[in-house]
Description:
The complex is a heterodimer. Chain A has a 5-stranded antiparallel beta sheet, with helices on one face. In chain A, strands 1-2-3 form a 3-stranded antiparallel beta sheet. In chain A, helix 1 packs across helix 3 (34-46). Chain A is α+β, with helices and mostly antiparallel strands. The radius of gyration of chain A is 16 Å and the shape is globular. Chain A is 32% helix and 25% strand. By secondary structure, chain B is mostly helical. In chain B, 41% of the residues lie in helices and 9% in strands. The two termini of chain B are 28 Å apart. The chains are: A alpha+beta, B mainly alpha. The interface between A and B is large, with 49 and 45 residues. Strand 9 of chain A pairs antiparallel with strand 1 of chain B.
Amino acid sequence: MDANEVRVALYRSFVETSRPPMPVELAAKFGVPLREIETALQQLADADVIALVPGTSFVWLAHPFSAAAAPFRVASHDQSWDAICIWDALGILALVGTDGRVETACPDCGDRLRVEVRGGHVDAPEPYVAHYGVPAARWYEDVGYT
Amino acid sequence: MLLFRSGEHLARWLEDDARPRGATLTLDQQWRLASEWFRGRHLPAWTKRSPVEAEAIFRSVGLSGPFWALSDHRPD
């Protein structure tokens, strides 16, 4: 078992169940001690491939997926996910390869925003704008804020 | 990486708290960026992109300039 196998298992779980496996579940899946899984998860986090809940080995983010409730709700016809930003939200639909929708609220007025993805095309009722406040070179200084 | 109802809503939000303006994308740009960026992310063969590769993806959807620069910030 290596860190990449753990990464693939994480993503498979998010795609199929909308949540990450707990470290103990990964240990059982791979038949290894828990500490080996925790080491692999920390390696992935150190490489900015995933983000862990601070002080734990629990997965918080495996972009584009969020394990925690987040401002962007993503839904296909039979499943839903959470995402921390519009890039991740649309990324979920692209990665899973499904039509669906993204819902969030405008940070200025609070109105509900709804984006549809159908047949590989994106659509919205108004000219929504995505804003990136942090330059690309600084994105991983605080991935949650970015 | 927030989504606003329009450019006017973004401008008002920035002005309300004197936030600096960063970069803006149309929804179509954002979709194309997300689609390319996360392609294959869940597959065993995926590897983390180099700064040069990331910049090429940004340019492919019309994003270039200092805001999107990565390769100058990390030594090979």
